[in-house]
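Batch 3, record 17
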Amino acid sequence: MTTIQRLDAALAAHIEKVEHYKQVQTLLAWDARTGAPRKGASYAARAKATLAGELFKLQTDAEFGLRLEEAAQQEELDELSKRIIAEHWKTYKRWSAIPIEEYQAFVQQQGLANAAWLEARAANDFSIFAPHLKQIFNASLKFAGYWGYEQHAYDPLVQQFDPDLDTVTLDRIFSELKSALIPLIRRVTSSAKQPDTSIFNHPFPLEQQRQLGIELLQAIRYDFDAGQFGATVHPFSSAINPYDARLAAKFVENDVRVSLWSALHEGGHSLYTQNIDPNLIHTGLGIFTSYGIHESQSIFFEKFIGRHKGFWENNYFILQKIKPETFGHVSLDDFYFALNAVKPTFNRFEADELTYNLHLIIRYELEQAIIAGEVDYEGLPEAWNDKYEEYLGIRPPTHLEGILQDGHWSAGFGLFPSYTLGFVYAAQIHKVIRRELPDYDHLIESDHIETITGWLTTHIHQFGKSRSADELIKSITGKSIDTAPLIRYLTDKYEQLYEL
Amino acid sequence: MTTIQRLDAALAAHIEKVEHYKQVQTLLAWDARTGAPRKGASYAARAKATLAGELFKLQTDAEFGLRLEEAAQQEELDELSKRIIAEHWKTYKRWSAIPIEEYQAFVQQQGLANAAWLEARAANDFSIFAPHLKQIFNASLKFAGYWGYEQHAYDPLVQQFDPDLDTVTLDRIFSELKSALIPLIRRVTSSAKQPDTSIFNHPFPLEQQRQLGIELLQAIRYDFDAGQFGATVHPFSSAINPYDARLAAKFVENDVRVSLWSALHEGGHSLYTQNIDPNLIHTGLGIFTSYGIHESQSIFFEKFIGRHKGFWENNYFILQKIKPETFGHVSLDDFYFALNAVKPTFNRFEADELTYNLHLIIRYELEQAIIAGEVDYEGLPEAWNDKYEEYLGIRPPTHLEGILQDGHWSAGFGLFPSYTLGFVYAAQIHKVIRRELPDYDHLIESDHIETITGWLTTHIHQFGKSRSADELIKSITGKSIDTAPLIRYLTDKYEQLYEL
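Prediction for the assembled complex:
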């Protein structure tokens, strides 16, 4: 018997309906980004908006709110039911706080901002995007006002994605990482020992890359009967429910690393979803608990498994089998070094493990500077370039490689920190898992990744949203979020690899 | 300005919402039959059922009904707006007539019947399926009672799909076809001249079949930017709107004809949808007008284009290019004869052009026999086999090749006649188009299919559901449905091909 049946029947039915709409929304988004035809996009968006409006109404329905309040006061309620109610109550409060016209205007404005970004890119002219960005950010801040905060307007914005984080903590995390990483990157890039990465740029037919992706997903035990492996222009995963956790990789003929990393990264997201307790489906808790924890699992599989040398001892043969003319005569050591090459780039998406967080630090610092009024929208592109020059030693030649590289800011403030939080969490988890599974390296070398996934399922995946990020990380590591394991991991690994 | 804006704003908004739900339903069905994972199927079905319930409520909303009634009485209304209102009024009346619990029970029963069919297949035991079939058919007849009819309970059932048809007309059509086709099939199958079809059974890798499908769809000018070409186990097309008309073919390694015909057939359906006037989107009329007319367009492209020798004069090189080892040394004449081989089969889906209608005549006669009480559910499998023996000279060795070959009857009575109606309509249209475009053969031979599609768009496609099947066929041919052109076409073609 599923937990939700212990709840009042009308309440449970309403929650199930909400969950059905959410699942369909996720599926429509998947379709829009994978198979949907170009010409149908605007009509599909209209249909999706209609359903999103219905979902909003269901989530903020006054009678639903009353039922939730009543249910929350029942003393005999079990812990899980309390969590279910708290989750929907939080959503109810969040969206009820915003006048529906403002919410609808914001959603529409997001679409317009994204279109303006495309136009700005075509003209290489940030001033086309700037007024939209301003509108979006101002609306975000207005929402923050509706939601309320104690210290910083950014707090409720980041808490949409990572409820346990706040600006003070983020400031600390980013500052610690910056202090450690910038000098380390300088040492690595000025090392005499450097890898040859040209092997990755040999043409690699897309159909063969797809085959590689399938075999790598099999290697990490992705369940193809509970998901789908698609293609797209910006990799993503769709967490519909534990029995339908899809992922889409990006395929680029002249850089096999793009599909390789995106399969492992999105595969990690999807493994998390597939391992959530199915009894949580239709409760609202059958999904990742926070964006940071979600990202920690994708990063775990991409970096702590996929960049582990033992993984390639097992799986390098796949590349050699599929593309013998490129990889047949390259040793595992050379391949592994090339795979872990450090090279500052303009784009987060192409970034290596070491420079990755700098991209997010820059985003975060710019967001804070905007809120503090330290930079205006006209000055933003140069502020962006200055930071790339200061932290990574490279300056984007045009804004296309700089501030116009993606349109993610069209969605609003607060999402970017999750990417770094995920890496920090993953390193904390990795440190503990190595202690608790002393044969960790051997498990990977001997193709027993299911033991590691089993550990992650026991300690993280199964709970879905029934435990918070902070509860999970404290129960695993004994403390809250902490950058030390990540800094230690990166320092040790790259000092050794680059013989510093 | 789209027509719907001339309607009352609240009415237009409600209609648009209905259309959004319908589009999403079609997309969910597409997903379930193409990429969706096996393990998620039951959860996806539940979410889809929730949305179907909402759609039902929207379509039968009492206030909506009142508004439609009011609008219908406005004298100054233009013709198109009248059609829009009439269409939604018809749906409103149809579904309002059925108690919602009975409707929901029927939908659930359809799912159970399909599951029972799978079980019956696994056990090769029709008695597992029989009670479900009985329940489904009885519910269909009960619905027919709610809807009312003058002559025959089958009338309102077939009119769900083909509003202009009735049992008297169907009896005539099937009887005329049977009288003409059975002797013709006997003459053809006993001819001394027979084709060699073994070329189609050489292994043909699925990826190459997909390439073939793409090139054939390009040949008939399918717009890939307004659709998608997928793979499935039972070919189908999804008419979401003119900008999103998808199709899925079936791919079988040892019979390339399956994907070849399904691409052309479903491609024909999708061309119809793509050519509907986009102003009809969100009115309820932006879709095929009846199942019979929809089928006429798939059959037109599959049979009157795809089985035209001129089409292969142009496109045979694609097969020869993709599979030179199989087709390189086969002449166009031999290929063409093999492609048009007549051979009675147990399965409609594998049927050639000549035996195809017999499968539907058998279904229809059995449906009528059930309604008339001339056969009971226990006797149905033998009645099925007897008819195959009588009409096609073959008797299914087991019920797996017989009555259990598909689970389509799980949906209820009345859909099968559309397949034959489509062929009859297509032949009528083909006769007129040859008269109006005297260089028809040359247009196909010289790769100017867009001229033919243009004619079909002008006379059929563009109107969507704003003209009825009977209106269309009368305006094109000057008369109603008529089997003579189909009988003439098949007789001439196969007498010549088999040198009778």
